[in-house]
Fold this protein.
Amino acid sequence: MAEPAHSNFKLHVGIDFGTDGSGLAYALPNGDVFIHNKWKSKKYGAITKPKTQILLNEEGNCVAFGIDASDVYSSLDKETQKKWLLFERFKMALYQDLDGALASNPTDEEDLKQDALPDNHDSDNDASSSKNEHSKKASKARKITIKKELTAMNGTKYPSELVFVEALKYLKSEATKYCRKLKVGKPKDNEIQWILTVPAIWNDYAKNQMREWAIKAALVDPDVADQLKIVFEPDCASLAIQHKIAKAKKKSAAAAVADVDNEDSSNNINGNNGNHSSKSLGGDSDFGKTVEESHFAEYTFGKGQKYILIDAGGGTVDIAFHEILGDFGVKECHHPSGGPWGSTYIDEEFMNVMDEIFTAKWMDEFKQEEPNKYTEMLMNFRASKNQFDPINNQNGEYHNIRLPLNFLSFLEERIPADAGDGDDDDASDFDIEEAMASMVENCTIHGQQGWAKFSDELLSLHVDLWRAMFEVSITPIIEHCHELCRDKTLLKHTKYVCLVGGLSSSSYFEKRVTDEFGPNSKYKFIMIKPER
């Protein structure tokens, strides 16, 4: 991961296929970098990052990408919805861990195990850890392969290859449009290098599939050397953090010089003793930014120092040990490992809870009849998920999720007929909110009653239930990190833990990891979490 060698490419384009959102970035040979942070949306205007979802028509062509895909799909008539294919979070749907692969293809066990082993890396230390010990640790790391078929919103099975090829075609067209706005001339297709990020725990088959799909999408020419670079997501995150720290140090030094100059100038002009307000460095709007950058400037990533990087995304979680080589170069101290423990598995736990409260049958029907409102429900949950903090919770023992009004209307047609405790003579007095409140409060969730309440469109879940939903992701992450930290050689010169990825936006996740590995733990690591 040292600085790349000189190339003849006139433009470098990075594609980040996230589980929740996708992004593009551009780099010129002179070092200039541009972030594609204005995506056009028919309904929402300009958005900073499109959702990783795509809508295909009957011919299999991309009709819409991002949030527009679900909006367009929801506006279609019922017959067209049966023919067109909406794939939401389709990167997440690709994942298949080795346990699942072995269960369905036991004859491929040896090949799958071989794919799961890390590549051989040169090491500068002659530590006593043996090859057998290394293999033992590698066997505990999860490796991910990808499914050959995806399931659309309407239940139709469709080849994964065709979905991804269309997505890559769309991103290439968007990149081409954006490049017209940049003063980079008109680079030919073979003068553009593409960098595609993938989770570090993907196996070789998954990475090769991405390469083949990029060729089929005419993203790259197989005859052009190094035109496609498939890179690990935690490696990119690692370099991004180093650049942020370097930038913060540079700005902090410049601010210090400016502060001295301002103080000298103020003393000369006003004749005071040098005391002045912190606002002299800038207005209120700049103050928070200065504090954040000064905070990052305190970190020291020196040569030979090591850190743990936890890239907790929506689908996979990659955990890497890196050592600083200097000049933004790092090396792996241990092959990245992890598993399918991302934030979307917490979403699945929530939907399981909804199945327990309202029955799986009703939830499936709501998903089919109101796909956009079903998505709205999930988005409301994700917003509440990021805000969940049991210690500073404003609602005491419960934390709320707002349910769409359409969901209440949907249930209104079902609850009277299925509840079995209504009075037919008083049907006109039926109150859907009262019926909902009664249904929710009397339900049993994970064997517990009283874990859910409903009032004024708000579904309130007990903090213990929230903790239980989070554990599906947090517990394996923490256990895996503890297992890695048993290696004293890895821990030597390790000072920081860096949290990146969508799940790191969660206050509860950050607190749990900090409690286990932060300054007050036995490891006493310093926690770093860049702002998103």
